[in-house]
Amino acid sequence: MLPAAAIAWKYVLAGTPEESPNYNKSDHWWSMLIDIPKCIGCGNCVRACAAENDVPEGHFRTWVERYHVDDWHMESPQVISPDGGKEGFPAASEDSGKYFFVPKLCNHCADSPCTQVCPVGATFISPDGVVLVDQTYCLGCAYCVQACPYGCRYIHPEKRVADKCTLCYHRITQGLTTACCENCPTGARQLVDLKDPNDPIHAFLKTHHVQVLKPQMATGAKVFYNELDGSVR
Amino acid sequence: MSLSKDAGHLFRFAFLFVIAFAVFLVVRHFVVPKTFGEYGHYRGAAIGEIAARPLHYAGHDTCETCHADVAEAKKAGKHAGVNCEACHGPLANHAADPSIQPAHLDTAVLCIRCHAASAAKPKDFPQVDAQQHSGGLACETCHKPHSPAIQTEGAK
Amino acid sequence: MNGVEGFMYPNEIALQWSVLIVLYPYITGLVAGAFILASLERIFNVEAVKPTYRLALLTALAFLLVAPLPLQLHLGHPERSPEMYFTPHATSAMAMFGFVYLWYLMAVLVFEIWLDYRRDIVLLSQSSTGLLRRLYRIMTLGSQNISPRSLAIDRKVGWIVTLVGIPSAFILHGYVGFIFGSLKANPWWNSPLMPVVFIFSAMVSGIAAVMLLYMGTTKWRKLPIDMPCVDTIAMYLFYIFILDFSLEMLDLIHRVYEADESFRSLNFMVHTRLYFSQIVLQICIGTLVPIILLGIVQVTKLPPFIRKRIYVVAGCLVQIGIFAMRWNVVIGGQLFSKSFLGYTTYKMALVTKEGLLVAIFLTILPLCILWVLLKLLPPWPDKDHAPLPAATPAQ
Q1: Is A4 contained in some domain?
Q2: What is the pLDDT of residue B109?
Q3: What is the pTM assigned to this prediction?
Q4: How far is A120 from chain C (nearest CA, A)?
Q5: Residue A51, domain extent
Q6: Is pLDDT larger for residue C381 or for residue B38?
Q7: pLDDT tier at A9 (50, 70, 90 boundaries)?
Q8: Angstroms from B63 CA to nearest CA on chain C
Q9: Residue numbers of C between 311 and 370 with CB closer than 8 Å to A
Q10: Number of domains within chain A
């Protein structure tokens, strides 16, 4: 006997023209938590994102960086990201200094500089806090790519328009989590709904020291990093 | 007033601008997408289009509606937080049509992605040197992937 | 990885803006600079440069017509570029391109050229035959009135247009500087001085270009070069260049002194990947040498034949220097990682739509268009042909 859920799944897979009927954009304000001590650099998230979103080879909607900081020399970390960390990382042999992995993605900034510079309104922040690209409207001028301080945008080589992480908008509006969070084996990546009082991550955010990338840019970045080291660029 | 006679050419030039502007307004009315400006300076319909993209990963909740037994076994073990598709790959097509069989996984390759020893990984994370640990044997020879801890008595 | 040194964010490795985006500010810079030279005569009544007035306007027009081409070739979807007219995003400096361009083309340049040439156009519409006659008649907009009063009105209106044209030229080119200068993400570009430096270097390149074109076309017409004219142009060129160089040095000194988080990375980039284009081409060959040459002319009394050669050499070096400046801004801004930990290389293609051959073609094309304009709207009465007939009464 096929469970009802699997039957209903057919409609989900078919792709509904709108989000689920009971999804109200103004009830949500999406964001993500990255728990750095939990990341093992397996690259599952990078592979999952590429599979879920047909990300072209050599371009990345999310990627993982590995940092090696010698003693306290925060101004000169050694950083690698071989193919974005898609196939994981080579084994590190040195034991001196500290190592950690930093997964990165679009920060879905509340005051995003990328949406500010789009000449035609092809990229925007949705009412539920996700920065998206309207790929039928985008000119492919790449101004937004230049304006992003985090390097999370690229021009799609075949579609010739701007492309980037959509926070798996097609998943989160159906009650699922993002592909990267779903496939992270250690729970280092967690989707957060800042407007949902029942979201379990709220407690974590309130009790841990979290930081955003490049806070001096004042972009209103919404991806929070737990235990982000000062050497992270 | 002879001004219009001697400045007539200027009015003609200005007239070109007026015509061009009028044409622009008319074209604009037809060309700008109807949903533009619905939520902000963008095409409102884009949101729905992006939300309608196809899924490749079903999500563990969907897996568990059929595979409740595996979910039970996983819950008690160390892989409780590892979702199904993290190892089994995207299986939304299988969830939609269970006759589509997922590929069988090779644990000799799959497990070391996470568990290969590296000085870079967190110290408290279980990691081994595959050669030293098992001499290259497939991991499922000793470990059950859904609940990997080796039972010392009452083996399953 | 190919051409990458150190660490770059994975999406940063390939450059987004190519040599065509270097060419675009260079071209609009020539437009703005040429127009400023024309306005010297019209607004500031510098009589000496009168022989270059019409040539400067036609030069500006020829380059302005080509200006959108590098942008269109760069866009992923050029067929969507009208969206910038229909739904311009008010917070984007790039969105104003379409409007500023159209305004400058139609309400300033074409309008001013038309007003200044109207008498000639009417006369040519009467004296020419065939297709040309049809073309000139269209250009008269149906009015054959070239009475003294109508021409006086034209001159007055033209003066206002030129006056408005000066800030318009500054906006046409300054907004490009703002496009770069307003990006907080890129410390090489981010500076309030960027639009100002762009404008001043534009004036330098435009004035030098008109000077070269004047000398070239005069030579081609086998006529003597008006020395007071080129001497005056060279003097303005010299002083504006001093201002431009001072602004660029101010930016440099400020950066070196402040030494913010980006400084080490940018400094290394300038000394390695940008060494030839910045230190050698832009600063030494493209700025210091022409300034010294032009300065020598200002403080010594040299015979005309030496001055002419200095002007030609200086003018050519200026073009190289200002193009190098655009290169260093656009390409330089993409060679370093925003992590300040690495560098990439610009692999300029040869035959693709954003490659070197296209860039060369787009640099030559305005000169071809100028040639056509010079034939269509001669800036000077040709001494080989009969002088233009006396004005016939208005029809």
Answers
A1: no
A2: 86
A3: 0.92
A4: 5
A5: 27-226
A6: B38
A7: low
A8: 33
A9: 333-334, 337-341
A10: 1
Q: What is the pLDDT of residues A119-132, one digit of tens each?
A: 999 999 999 999 99
**A68 lies in a domain?**
yes
How far apart are the C-alpha atoms of A22 and A49, rounded to whole Å? Answer: 26
DSSP codes joined into one string, B72-110:
HHHHHSTTTTS-HHHHH---HHHHH-TTSPPPPP-HHHH
Spatial neighbors of C41 by CB under 8 A, at least 6 apart, are C47, C49, C50, C52, C53
pLDDT tier at C53, thresholds 50, 70, 90: very high
The ipTM, to two decimals, is 0.92
Sequential DSSP letters for B8-60: HHHHHHHHHHHHHHHHHHHHHHHHS-TTBTSSSSSBTHHHHHHHTPPPS---H
Enumerate the residues of chain A whose CB falls inside 8 A of the CB of residue B54: 13, 15, 170
The verdict on a CB contact (< 8 Å) between C74 and A141 is: yes
* SS3 category, A169: helix
Comparing C-alpha atoms, which of B141, B142, B122, B62 is closest to residue A185? B122
Q: What are the tokens at C345?
A: 């290389």
Q: Count residue pairs from B and C with Cβ separation < 8 A.
A: 40
User: Which CATH number characterizes residue A117's domain?
Assistant: 3.30.70.20
- Residue partners of A122: CB distance under 8 A and separation at least 6: A133, A134, A135, A137, A138, A139, A161, A162, B42, C83
pLDDT > 90? residue B154: no
* Domain contains A67: yes
